[in-house]
Design a protein that fits this description.
This protein is low in regular secondary structure. Helices cover about 0% and strands about 5% of the residues.
């Protein structure tokens, strides 16, 4: 971590190549990182609250314990090709996404313990001319993540690791949790209307009887 973390709050870094730079602990609150190349950059513990990261390139970037509250993360570039590559995966372990707007492909990434309370991850149904743009967290490690009061409608959560995750009061309508591990998850008051839980593990999950639209598997 730098001796004196950079203060770039409110700065425009749009489309700049910031790959492999050390921003650990830096203040990037409200910064404009639209389409910036952040490949391999280190944002450990950085303050990115209210920042704009739409179309940013985040391959191999480290956002461990970063503050991304109320940030905008739309259509992130997560791989150099069409296929997912584990070698290019960014990490968001322990990151704070409270109130963030996220429509991105975060499949198979490390988001253990992330705070996604009140996150807005549902597609804009008024603007789907190119097909339904969903948040994709399929196969991601979200153990212990907090999704309370988040909007995850239509999200893809297939085979995600969600053991111990908190979905209290979350909107999960029309989301796909097929094959997901929800062992010990908290689902009190969640809206699961038209949600797909096919093959999901819900052992010791709490609050099932309080979910809206819940139809237990037969």
């Amino acid at each position: 971590m730098p001796d004196r973390p950079a203060d770039l709050s409110g700065k425009s870094l749009e489309k700049l190549d910031l790959s492999h730079l050390d921003f650990s602990g830096a203040n990037l609150s409200r910064a404009n990182l639209f389409a910036a190349k952040l490949v391999g950059a280190d944002f450990t513990g950085a303050d990115l609250s209210g920042a704009k990261l739409d179309l940013a390139w985040i391959m191999r970037a480290n956002f461990t314990n970063a503050n991304l509250s109320n940030a905008s993360l739309l259509s992130l570039v997560v791989s150099s090709g069409l296929d997912y590559s584990a070698a290019e995966a960014a990490t968001f372990r322990g990151a704070n996404f409270a109130g963030a707007h996220i429509i991105a492909r975060l499949a198979r990434l490390d988001l253990r313990g992330a705070n996604l309370t009140g996150a807005k991850m549902a597609p804009d149904m008024r603007n789907q001319s190119m097909g339904l743009m969903r948040s994709d967290l399929s196969g991601a490690n979200l153990a212990g993540a907090d999704f309370s009061k988040a909007d995850l409608s239509f999200a893809l959560m297939r085979f995600a690791k969600l053991n111990g995750a908190n979905f209290t009061g979350a909107n999960l309508s029309a989301a796909d949790f097929s094959g997901a591990d929800l062992t010990g998850a908290e689902l009190s008051g969640a809206n699961v209307t038209d949600t797909d839980f096919g093959g999901a593990v819900i052992t010791n999950a709490r609050g099932l009887d309080t979910m809206k639209g819940w139809h237990p598997p037969r």
